[in-house]
Design goal:
By secondary structure, the protein is mainly β. The protein folds into 3 domains: 4-62, SH3 type barrels (Roll), CATH 2.30.30; 67-124, Beta Barrel (OB fold (Dihydrolipoamide Acetyltransferase, E2P)), CATH 2.40.50; 128-184, Nucleic acid-binding proteins (OB fold (Dihydrolipoamide Acetyltransferase, E2P), Beta Barrel), CATH 2.40.50. Helix content is 2%, strand content 51%. It is built from 1 helix and 15 strands; from the N terminus they run ββββββββαβββββββ. The strands form 3 sheets. A 5-stranded antiparallel β-sheet has the order 4-3-2-1-5, with no helix packed on it. It has a 5-stranded antiparallel β-sheet with strand order 8-7-6-9-10. Strand 3 (36-43) and strand 4 form a beta hairpin. The radius of gyration is 20 Å and the shape is flat.
Length: 185
């Protein structure tokens, strides 16, 4: 058992006998009262998120979280398939487990897939990914006096604001946290 102040984003907490992945965490104190930890966590069995307050006097049990580097292979309707690069073992994740990161999944790229008790539960994205531009409007000649940007649709369907010189076919780096253009690849 551990203290609630040991809870961090990305850790697995056993709450109510069920493993939950911590997605947000804030430590709070109120005047003379004991502190508490405000936690948003996703149930790894149902996929639903809950907002929970854990007092600093309570004990918390952590689950074992394992990361494996797997390549994203393809999507078939309800599942996203990842392949181990050496053993070619196929691991599939349900659509609801990757819904918030699916726009950053590029085929044949490696990602950290999170496992709890040998069961895939989610994906940890890198800070930036490289994607191809599929659609983008033409830049207006002479409109370069300020930092003018235009929308560009990427190979995964994600739309980001890019500088005027970016055209279809270019490879760009995109921040996975801020969903913004970082530069050419």
């Amino acid at each position: 058992m551990a203290s609630p102040t040991d809870i961090r984003k990305g850790k697995v907490v056993i709450w109510g006998g069920v493993p939950h992945l911590v997605t947000e965490m804030q430590h709070r104190t109120q005047g003379r009262q004991a502190g508490f930890v405000q936690v948003v966590m996703r149930n790894l069995q149902t996929g639903s998120s809950t907002n929970t307050k854990i007092r600093s006097t309570e004990n918390v049990e952590f689950g074992f979280l394992e990361r494996r580097k797997l390549e994203f292979s393809y999507q078939d309707g309800e599942n996203f398939h990842f392949v181990h690069p050496e053993t070619f073992e196929d691991t599939s994740l349900a659509k609801n487990l990757v819904e918030d990161v699916r726009l950053f999944l590029v085929e044949n790229e490696s990602y950290d897939v999170l496992f709890v008790d040998e069961k895939a539960i989610g994906i940890e994205l890198p800070s930036a990914v490289t994607m191809g531009v599929v659609e983008s409007a033409d830049g207006v000649r002479g409109d370069t006096a300020s930092n003018v940007q235009k929308p560009a649709k990427l190979s995964t369907g994600l739309v980001v604001q890019v500088p005027l010189f970016i055209k279809p076919g270019d490879l760009i780096r995109v921040s996975t946290e801020e969903r913004c253009y970082l530069g050419r690849a």
